[in-house]
C-alpha cells in the first residue's frame, strides 16, 4: 500500500513543512520506498516531480523540501509497490489533460478487477491499476461532457462515477484539476483545515514544530489531507469508508 | 524567440555537461529569461522539470545540472516570451499522452496563423501558439490512427503533417515519444553525433571541457540537437529550412 498527501487552500501556500514529515515515510519512518511524486498547480500550470528512488533520500525530494513552491492545490504520493514494478512510469501522481486543464491523480489501495477501457482516448502508460482507474474516470467524464461542464454538473457526475469505480476494489484517492481537490476514502484518509486563530503544529515523523501565526494572514485557509495524520497536536478528521469530499478554497464539502 | 536542446542516444546518458552550457543562455550568456523546462524519458516514464524563473538562476536548473539523470531521449527549452505571458502553463516542453505513450514537444518560432482545433481531444492549457501546434499535431495523428501504427507509417504521417503545420509560420521544434526524437528546422537548428573515436568537447557558454573517452564505451552513440552549437571545437551540422530529421539510437535519418 501507499501513502497520500494533498493540500487545498484559498491562497498559494508552500507545503515544505508537511512534506518534510511526509517524505520520511518513504523509507525512514515507514517502508514506502518504491518511488514518490508530488504535483503542484500554479495558476493553470502544473509542476510534477516524480522519482523512483525513496523519498527519504531522493535529491529531488530534498529540493522540494527546501524550495517553497506556492500552490493552491498539491497532490503527493509515496509508493509501496503492489501492482506494477518499481519504475518511473508507475510513479504517482499521474498527469493528463482534459478540456484544456491538467488533472492530477494519486491512489492508495488495490483494485481487484479493472473497469473496461476499450476505445478510451486515455490510456495507461505504466502498468498500475491506479493509472488505469484514472484513465477510466477521465474517459467517462469526457464521454459525458464533450466540453467542460459547470462545476455542479461535474461534481454530480463524480458522485455517480466514483462509487462505480470503487466497486472494483480499495480506492483511496486524491484528484485535482487545479481549481478543487477531491478526496475519496475507502480505508484510510484524514484531513484538517487550518484557519484563524492559527496555532502551533508538531510533526509526527520528525521533531519539528511550526507556528502558523507567524506565516499566515487571518484570511488564510489551508486544508491538508493525508492517509495518516502528519501532526500529533492537532485534531484531524478521519474520513468514512465511501466518503467523497471536494475541497475548494480550503473548505471541505461532502458530495 | 527561444532556444531548443535535445538529446537522443542508444544507451541512457546524462545531459549534465551540455545542460551546464545551455542553461546559461537563459539570462546569462543570452537573454532567454522567461522560463525554461526539460523533459527526460526513462523507459516508458517521463520526468518533466519546468520553471518560470530564468534557467541561469533557477534552483531546479541547478538540481538538473548536478543530478545525472540517465535518459535516451531528452528535450529542453529556454523561453523568450513572444506569444503568451510568462507563466508555468506557457513553459515548454509540453506533455501529453497518446496511444499509451507520453509525448514531449518544444518549439522555437512564431506561428502567424493557428490551425483549426475545433472538436480536438487535445486542448492547450496555456496560451502559446506552440502548445496549440502540438495539440494540432497529436489530434491529426489520433484521428488518422485510432491505435498506434507501425513506426514507418507514423513517420510517413509526420512527413505529411509537419509541412502543413509549418505553413502557418516559423516552426523549429523537437518532438519525442520516448523511442525516437524528431527535429524540424525552419530557421535555426544544429546537430552533432558523438561516437567512437570520442574526443574532447569544450562549451561555448562556460569555460569547461569534457573528455568523452573517459565516460563512454566504444558502442555509445549520442546525438545532440540545439538551436545554436553548444561547443566550439566540434563540427555541428546546420539543418536546412524545412528539413525534418528523425533521431533513433543516436542515428539521424532525414524524412
Automatic annotation (TrEMBL), chains A, B:
This is Class II glutamine amidotransferase. It comes from the Bacteria. Residues 2-250 form the Glutamine amidotransferase type-2 domain. Keywords: Glutamine amidotransferase, Transferase. GO terms for molecular function: transferase activity. Pfam families: GATase_4. InterPro entries: EgtC-like (IPR026869), GATase_2_dom (IPR017932), Ntn_hydrolases_N (IPR029055). PROSITE patterns: GATASE_TYPE_2 (PS51278).
